[in-house]
Amino acid sequence: MKAYLDCIPCFIRQSLDAAKHATQDFHIHKQVLREVLRLTSDLDLNQNPPKIGQLIHRLVRELTGVKDPYSKVKKQFNTASLKLYPKMRQLIIESDDPLDTAIRLAIAGNIIDFGVNGALQESDIEKAISECLAADFTDEQFNAFRQEINDAKEILYIADNAGEIVFDRLLIEQLPTEIVTAAVRGSPVINDATIEDATNTGLSRIVEVITNGSDAPGTVLESCSEYFRYRFGKADLVIAKGQGNYETLSDVKKNIFFLLKVKCPVIAGSIGCKVGEMILRKTKAFIGEKENARI
Amino acid sequence: MKAYLDCIPCFIRQSLDAAKHATQDFHIHKQVLREVLRLTSDLDLNQNPPKIGQLIHRLVRELTGVKDPYSKVKKQFNTASLKLYPKMRQLIIESDDPLDTAIRLAIAGNIIDFGVNGALQESDIEKAISECLAADFTDEQFNAFRQEINDAKEILYIADNAGEIVFDRLLIEQLPTEIVTAAVRGSPVINDATIEDATNTGLSRIVEVITNGSDAPGTVLESCSEYFRYRFGKADLVIAKGQGNYETLSDVKKNIFFLLKVKCPVIAGSIGCKVGEMILRKTKAFIGEKENARI
Question: How many domains does chain A have?
């Protein structure tokens, strides 16, 4: 999906948040703000939001001289989520429908998104868990998802954020792990998960983890490594977590299921739902072999 | 108070909101956004937020060619508030402490602020009324306020927004109206009340209403008319409603009581309270005759 004008004020706030995470120097915060305002005033808006985010966060890193502004936050939320892991795993195992519970928890973890909420607290996670366990899905495609998992030969699970990746691990544990590969970002951007987070949260011990080779807060395919694109092409089922992956992959002709919590009005408008809702939905951009046969 | 860097993303959003209120033309929205980004990238931040707001909204009016983008919204919220007026007046008259109830309602009306919330619905007003009637004040200075009203020879009540002005009327009716003058903005900016709103909501029938001669969303004294400044100087008690008036008058050495609902983290930080709280507070910038005598 393309960026909306409404994305711009949000990017400005995001860049200031990132600068504050990188340094306490007010003069650098101001410089970042001014340069990002300048950059966005001339920006091509016919790009998807993570492409713009990629440019902005490169600028923030350049101006602050800090390669990973959210390093501390990522560690903090990995640790907080790992603390919840045993309780959540128990909840899944003991539930009537473990896959359903694991999907709900994976979506709950999507609350850990510093691109949307720079003031997120650890206490917000438990609140999100309770809500996601109780809430109804919007246009839920659970049966189709279960069927596709059973039919798949190779699943690519594209993770989103640090901390959240612990919740992804819980869902991945309910999938046929021998055919699952998890993908993380190639290098730091906002609090998006990188290989370090996959290692630190034990995901790498369960499935193969690859990086996408990119520093975009989403899956901008032309910015990803050739190897990632090869693996993306080879997978017959892609599970894409979170808003950034939705924004970059919603128009790609590929068999993708999107799992996310909708956290902004722009995405809500694109999906046709309300802010706060849980989404488990097969992409509309793809017509698979079965669907093709019917036409 | 000076603007904070955090005000800037909010101004960008506000300008886009204003452009959307002015026209449905996407190209004009985009042009407004680009020009406001350019303007703010070079802005002197040592100004109070309404001074910046003044510049930005002048630019929006110039680029859209619409003199009063919030005209419809202002009429809508005047009408909605007038519908609630009889019920609220009854509530005040029948309450144990009419002045306390009227103050709470006046603060509830401060929710009608399109500078902060461009998605405000009429239903939000009744919710704000219930909340303000039940909530505790932060550092409430009710007794001092009552005393000053009794002692005052000339009260200047600086209103904030359209719609809200109906709630101000309820409070003004509890004051000694013969010594009260109400002030509104000199010309349209966001949904701030102008003379038209004072007339349409009946405020002009109760007290003298003057305009401040300015198009700033607050009381930028140097931008106000000479006559307004004269009246401001002459009043021995000023009641200033809302965030914009707080932002512009909090450092002015004058006997001012601020009445507002805190709607943004920057103001909350300046006041030392949480977002959502109700404030009735005497300015800290002023030392009056009595206080002077004690020193």
Answer: 2
Q: Please tell me whether residues B52 and B194 are part of one structural domain.
A: no
Q: What is the pLDDT of residues B228-238, one digit of tens each?
A: 999 999 999 99
Does any domain span residue A1? no
Contact (CB<8Å) B8/A5 = no
Helices (H), chain B: 7-22, 26-41, 49-64, 71-94, 98-109, 123-134, 142-151, 164-172, 195-200, 203-206, 226-234, 242-249, 265-271, 289-294
In 3-state terms, what secondary structure has residue B209? strand
What per-residue confidence (pLDDT) applies to A147?
94
Residues 14-73 of A with CB under 8 A from B: 16, 26, 29-30, 33-35, 37-38, 40-42, 45
So what's the ipTM on this one? 0.89
Phi/psi-derived region of residue A200, left when phi > 0, alpha when psi is between -120 and 50, beta in every other case: alpha
Q: How many CB pairs under 8 A join A and B?
A: 51
**Residue of A9, A30, A45 lying closest to B16 (CB–CB):** A9
User: Is residue B121 domain-shared with residue B230, that is, in the same domain?
Assistant: yes
Residue A241 and residue A214 share a domain: yes
| Whether A190 and A97 share a structural domain | yes
Kindly state the percentage of chain B with pLDDT values over 90: 88
SS3 B208: strand
Give the pTM: 0.91
Domain end point (choices A44, A64, A84) = A64
Which chain A residue's Cα is nearest to B11?
A: A9
- Nearest Cα neighbor of B186 from B106, B67, B77 is B67
In a domain, B2, yes or no: no
Residues B35 and B170 reside in one and the same domain: no
The residue segments making up the domain with residue B270 are: 71-294
**Residue B140 included in any domain:** yes
Which pLDDT score, from 0 to 100, does residue A290 have?
59
| pLDDT of B287 above 80 | no
Kindly report the CATH number assigned to the domain that includes residue A153: 3.40.50.10880
Residue A193 counted as domain residue: yes
Q: Are B58 and B75 within one domain? A: no
The reported pLDDT for the residue numbered A295 is 46
Task: Mark whether A189 and A265 lie in a shared domain.
Answer: yes
- Enumerate the β-bridge partners of residue B181: B156, B208
Average pLDDT over chain A, rounded to an integer: 94
Distance CA A64, CA A66 (A): 5
- For residue A29, the distance in angstroms to the closest alpha carbon of chain B comes to 8
Task: Summarize pLDDT for B137-148 with one digit per residue, the tens.
Answer: 766 688 999 999
Handedness of CA A52, A242, A255, A7 (dihedral sign): negative
Same domain for B282 and B152? yes
- Asked whether A211 and A184 are in contact (CB, 8 A), the reply is yes
Q: DSSP for A91-117, please give it.
A: HHHHSSSHHHHHHHHHHHHTT--TTT-
